[in-house]
Amino acid sequence: MKNSEPKNDLMEKIVSLCKRRGFIFQGSEIYGGMAGMYDYGPYGVELLNNIKAAWWKEHVQKRDNYFGLDSAMFKEPRVWEASGHTSGFSDPLAECKKCNTRIRVDKELDKIGVKADEKMSEAKLNELFNEYKTKIKCPKCGANDFTPVHAFNLLVKTNMGDFTGKNENPAYLPGEACQGIYLNFKNVVDSTRAKIPFGIAQIGKAFRNEISPRNFLFRTRELEQADTQYFIRPNENKEAYEKIKQDRFKWYVSMGIKPENLRFKQHENLAFYAADAWDIEYNFPFNGFDELEGIHDRTNYDLTQHMKYSGTDLNYTDPNTGEKYIPWILETSVGMGRMFLAFISEAYTEEEFGGEARTVLKLSPRLAPIKVAVFPLLKNKPELVAKAREVYEMLREDIRTEWDDNGNVGKRYRRQDEIGTPFCVTIDFETIEQDAGVTVRERDTGKQERVKIEDLKDYIKGKIH
Question: Which residues pair with 289 in a beta bridge?
């Protein structure tokens, strides 16, 4: 990311590239679009899947004491009462009296340098808003005549299972993905060899009726969350909590994010379930450092609440001592859209290359949507095309490979640079006539070397893992 460039200009370029190269499309675009909804295009879904796979490998496959889960999206409505979401999951809203535009009060106060967040009481936010609202203007009409602040619940209601049409007992789309982990705590313990301490990991959908979705993928109404819940003995949280924080920071660095673009920030106003909470913040291109991932010490709140509301005993029994207790929980939670945006922003580079300006996504090879592109030097030479097809078919059995014969080789390089492809393979006349292998061009340096076809697959694999 070019930090010297004005952030708004940089963000516009990233959004433009995402649309032009098929990473992200506006949801329902042909109908004018829907706020806070985005579709992942052909390259976007590949990048998203690679991010998920890398996260899953880190949190499940590489750990002996973590277990994966995929819980149902719909849950018995009392789940959301137990979790506190029906009463405590809200954003502070005020409405312009002139044009009825709604604003998020905490965010508008932040813009004028007044520290506020959604976890403050309604009374405290009204006090701050009344003191400073003459400095706040409606983003639509410019007036500064607003209603008082009131809490707006973010849960999205549905009519699932309601056949009366009265909607007297609403169900909800998940406000967060992690509740399914708590509901299945006992099932995981009973069906596996899980012993405290252990973790459960899940990637799942969440929905929030956001007042003001904004900043592209940063705040949306439909999102995917990657969560881990680490179950520990009571009061044994300090050392484990710090280790989790450091492990998460190091993982982002290992995936290509510069350490200087990450930082920790402790919450001053805690959510209703948290004893301590830290964010890993990323230096986003729209307004600088903001939350990427949350790391929370939830103590025994969640299991205690679900045991109370469900009547099911969720105590853990130590198999060695027979001691029974409600485990404490250490949580990590990150929106996949935010993670996607962070990786794209970090990778986006404008530079002079070979005497020309180019735009390139310098994504980690593990994340790149396409690992290698295969070119015939000329698409009107059957012998080149046939050999290139042979190489393409060989590689795509094990490596995400793209065929590209559109335009001259220079234009193909630029196109692959913009989607982040780490390697391009060109089949030329030396390949055919001299059995001289193929030319492999590396994205970031432009370095080219010839590699024998029989060695090519192992060569590429060694570079991308």
Answer: 283
Domain count across the chain? 3
DSSP state of 146: B
Q: Are residues 255 and 161 part of one domain?
A: yes
Residues 6 or more apart in contact with residue 279 via CB below 8 angstroms: 264, 265, 267, 291, 292, 293, 294, 295
In a domain, residue 351? The reply is no
Residues 300 and 279 in one domain: yes
Domain annotation covers residue 362: no
Token pair in block for residue 385: 């095309």
Question: What is the distance between the alpha carbons of residues 431 and 220, in angstroms, rounded to a whole number?
Answer: 49
Q: CB of 144 within 8 A of CB of 95?
A: no
Count Cα atoms within 13 angstroms, Cβ side, for 343: 28
Cα–Cα distance for residue pair 464/134, rounded to 1 Å: 55
User: pLDDT tens digits, the chain, 465 residues: what are they?
Assistant: 444 556 678 999 999 999 999 999 999 999 999 989 999 999 999 999 999 999 999 999 999 999 999 999 999 989 988 988 887 777 888 989 989 888 888 888 888 888 887 667 788 888 889 998 888 999 889 888 999 998 887 888 888 777 776 767 788 899 999 999 999 999 999 999 899 999 999 999 999 888 778 889 998 999 999 999 999 999 999 999 999 999 999 999 999 999 999 999 999 878 767 789 999 999 999 889 999 999 999 999 999 999 999 999 999 999 999 999 999 999 999 999 999 999 999 999 999 998 899 999 999 999 999 999 999 999 999 999 999 999 999 999 999 999 999 999 999 999 999 999 999 999 999 999 998 899 999 999 999 999 999 999 999 999 987
Grouping H, G, I as helix, E, B as strand and the rest as coil, residue 214 is strand
End-to-end CA distance of the chain: 23
CATH number at residue 448: 3.40.50.800
Torsion over CA: 49, 41, 37, 121 (sign): positive
Give domain status of residue 35, yes or no: yes
Q: Is the peptide bond before 174 cis (omega within 30 degrees of 0)?
A: no
97: CB partners within 8 A, 6+ apart: 143, 145, 146, 147
Packing angle, helices 382-396 and 453-464, rounded to 10: 50
As a whole number of angstroms, the distance between CA 311 and CA 439 comes to 66
Residues of the domain holding 104: 90-153
